[in-house]
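Appendix B. One record, verbatim.
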Amino acid sequence: MIHRRFARPLRRVATIVSGAIVGAVVITVALTACSSDNGAGVIDTVGSIDFVNPLAIPPLAESTVNAAGERVFDLAAQEGTSEFVPGISTATWGYNGSYLGPTLVAERGENVRINVSNNLQEATSVHWHGMNLPAKMDGGPHQMVEPGAQWSPNFTIDQPAATLWYHPHPAGTTEHQVEMGLAGLFLIQDDEEAALNLPRSYGVDDIPVVVQDRRFDAKGQFISNVRGYIGPIGDELLVNGTLAPYFDVTTEMVRLRLVNGSSARVYDFGFSDGRSFDLIGTDGGLLTEAAPMDGIRLSPGERAEILVKVIPGETVKLQSTPPNLGTSARAATRNAGDDTLDVLELRAADTLGSIGAVSTTLANIEPLQKADASVDRSFTLNGYTINNRLMDMTRIDETVEAGATEVWTVDNAMPLPHNFHVHAMQFQVLRVGTELPSAELSGWKDTIYLEPGVRYELIMQFAEYTDPDFPYMFHCHMLAHEDAGMMGQFVVVKPGEQAGTPPTAHDVIVPQENLAVGSGPRPVSTTHGHYTD
């Protein structure tokens, strides 16, 4: 059965195994470099935070409709200062403001254009995380916007209602730019979601919750020198750019759009009294039905929409308890895996509004069928490499035919955390090891945590956008890993077409022998470097 997102031609099944060996030296160097990342020990903030600041709600981005019928947004990346603590000024970056950016909202079927201006003193890019769009509009490291320049991607929204986000994606400096504050939400709406009885009054009962850990020096400036293998580990949380936040709840049911906007930290979100909540959506949109649970693990880049019910006059805290990283106890401690954090205090009013019984039957998700897959690919994450390769912007690692359904099997060969993000794509999870996916992995995903030693079988159907030269990315979304080279490139081509030569950022001159010729069958190395924790 053809999934309604994309039509695709039928093809015979082939198997492509990714990877080329670059030599044990690369693995050794990468793993030696991370051995000094001792982490922050155990952090526990429960009961130590006075929730004194009202939760900031990112403003809705203004837009106009031009003569071509496009909904036009304007975003400017800029420097600024923020007072997270009254009287203390922190140097920050943001879009159209000093920290984070406005929330973009568009309807499925709309044509959008986003004028991105770079008012920073260094080059940047803006990636539309989770969006299905042409490669030239994706905002990866090939679409750099130089200081003083403007980039105006335009594309058609063609995917279900979902909580997406946008953030920088420059080669080698993504962590720094995100840590400074560049990020924002992009909400997609559609008729199917609008027909459901769900909280959807933005900032009232439909609340963005962008969670980022940060660390400040004695002068109130961001620092990232306390690190684990995963990257920087903060000891304070910003929620929508607010320290110690509370939110005054005025309705008995609240929809929280949880976004792990941290560079490295994995969270396990739940509530201080252990109450159950309903998971209604993940990265790419709504689930088929609401799933009751009392905690959900989100690695960097992952999102979840949850419904929580409150009673008049009560106070309850959103918390993060120690996430299951799938590592040894020592590795967990060194990588923020033992931390318990107060996140956000919800304060219910004495009288609460009601929308009545909320919908529990949600979206129609048509399962992709493994029998329809024309290609199988395998990806092993190890050190800072994928299939023993560091990122090379001049090399195309995988070539995909438009409309194809493929199975990507991904595994983390290290006893330490990684996750995996695929650009311009929402996938379904077929298997986690030998098991079927749990509720939180049953919907559309674009980012997934990889427990060490577990193979994740993902199925995806590629859109009809083709470009043999302009690539999309796949990578670990722990930003230190991405910056270190844990990323690859794929192009989507017409059936029978070959991959071309990718552009390079800043017009890099590339030796002829390094130019890409597209992907083909390659063996996966059966030996892996190992990190001793």
